[in-house]
Specification:
Largest sheet: 9 strands, mixed
Bound molecules: NADPH dihydro-nicotinamide-adenine-dinucleotide phosphate
Number of strands: 18
Number of helices: 14
Length: 397
């Protein structure tokens, strides 16, 4: 039924590859391409399906991408490389007539700043080319937007307050490690916090606002207000929202390490001269930190990510909490990767499945909440990320 090209052979790429291979009725022809071909070959070996093709590609180079697309001729590209490559891959998709899906919005390398404007600017070109681009189809962004769309469709006349809550209660037994690409992760959480209130964005100092939130099957965890990219599209697509915030848990040990990393200059993203060689401190740090892909084996505990929503239904106030808990060990047993890569890779696969089934096929550039959430929610239950809901419970927020 579908020919897909996965770009990126990291933690998330590995999970996407396992999940597309598991759904052989939908994904009939698969290629994994990345900067380092041996990593693609290792994934194929782990899956044990020699029909999956591999290739080397520099996704910063539009011409190289176009040549690869023209030779493999995929229907859709699953971009699970880094946010820096979003625009070159979208550009190549337009040149070669290929559809597009990613899990994180574009970020320039030299500025820790992410917003959708760069990718939304491609809307007309994708429309004119008759191609679909699906943005932010991981867990958050991704399932967080689909949960919100599902709540709006089935439970509310008006969503007024949205809190996305992201807890990782796992223990990988390392003093310090990040759960996905360390460079992207540290850039994200050392930024100012930001939330939406009454039509305006309110900025906070990094990790300034925090409170205990209770997560199902986990208990209370200190949760910090961060800016997260899906807030931008959700307040646009659900204009009744009065306040939208994003919370993520961090342990004290993690925050202490992060503070030291920043204080000694290792979180810098500008180039410095080291013995005549130009290096970016944060990229050097990434090279010495544990590889997120190697955390899985000893990772215990689970993640819990969901949306806590307050709004109006039939003139009355209602609350709704929808969430998934994902066990790191279960994810590792199935794909060799920990829960954070798993919760990102499974939705990316489902998004492409929605496209190939014709359910999410619409020329233009779209965020996930703009499509019908129902068939996606059904697949989450079948593909390893079952969800649960609590109606009129205490949201704590
Ligand atoms: P990794 O760093 O593990 O993997 C990234 C992969 O992309 C690597 O294989 C890397 O190659 C490859 N790559 C990087 N640059 C290029 C390039 N120029 N050309 C070709 N390949 C390249 O990252 P993760 O798997 O942890 O994350 C992947 C994506 O998922 C990121 O964009 C991240 O932001 C996103 N994400 C989204 C989440 C969500 O819920 N929405 C949550 C977590 C992550 P090499 O191995 O050679 O370095």
């Amino acid at each position: 039924m579908g020919k897909v090209l996965i770009i990126g052979a990291g933690g998330v790429g590995t999970v996407v590859a396992h999940k597309v291979a598991q759904n052989a009725d939908i994904f009939t022809d698969i290629m994994i391409a990345s900067r380092t071909k041996s990593k693609c070959d290792a994934i194929v070996k782990a899956i044990g399906n020699p029909n999956i093709k591999t290739a080397q590609v520099d996704a910063d180079n539009v011409d190289e991408l176009v040549a690869l697309f023209n030779s493999f001729k995929p229907e859709i590209v699953i971009n699970v490389a880094l946010p820096y490559q979003d625009l070159t891959i979208m550009e190549a998709c337009l040149k070669a007539g290929v559809n597009y899906l990613d899990t994180a919005n574009y970020e320039p390398k030299d500025e820790a700043h992410f917003e959708y404007s760069w990718q939304w600017a491609y809307k007309k070109r994708f429309e004119d080319a008759g191609l679909t681009a699906i943005l932010g189809c991981g867990f958050d962004p991704g399932v967080s937007g689909i949960y919100t769309a599902y709540a709006a469709k089935h439970y509310f006349d008006e969503i007024q307050y949205l809190d996305i809550v992201d807890c990782n209660a796992g223990n990988h037994h390392k003093a310090f490690a990040t759960n996905f690409n360390p460079e992207i992760n540290i850039r994200e959480i050392t930024q100012n916090g930001r939330y939406y209130q009454d039509g305006k964005w309110v900025t906070t100092a990094p990790l300034e606002i925090h409170k205990d939130l209770t997560y199902p099957n986990i208990g209370p965890r200190d949760s910090y207000l961060l800016y997260h990219e899906e807030l931008e599209s959700l307040v646009k697509n659900f204009p009744t929202i009065k306040r939208a915030r994003f919370w993520m848990t961090f342990g004290q040990e993690y925050l202490t390490h992060l503070r030291v990393i920043q204080n000694i200059g290792m979180a810098r993203i500008d180039e410095i001269d080291y013995n005549g060689t130009k290096i970016v401190p944060l990229q050097f740090l990434k090279a010495v930190l544990p590889n997120p892909q190697d955390l899985g084996e000893n990772y215990e505990g689970e993640t819990s990510i969901g949306c806590r929503i307050r709004g109006i239904k039939d003139g009355k106030e209602r609350t709704y909490y929808v969430y998934n808990n994902c066990s790191h060990q279960e994810a590792y047993k199935e794909t060799g990767m920990q829960g954070v890569s798993y919760t990102t890779g499974v939705p990316a696969m489902i998004g492409v499945m929605m496209f190939l089934k014709g359910l999410w096929k619409r020329p233009g550039v779209w965020n996930v909440e703009e499509f019908n959430p129902d068939p996606f929610m059904e697949q989450l239950n079948k593909q390893g990320l079952p969800w649960h809901e609590v109606i009129d419970g205490d949201l704590e927020l």
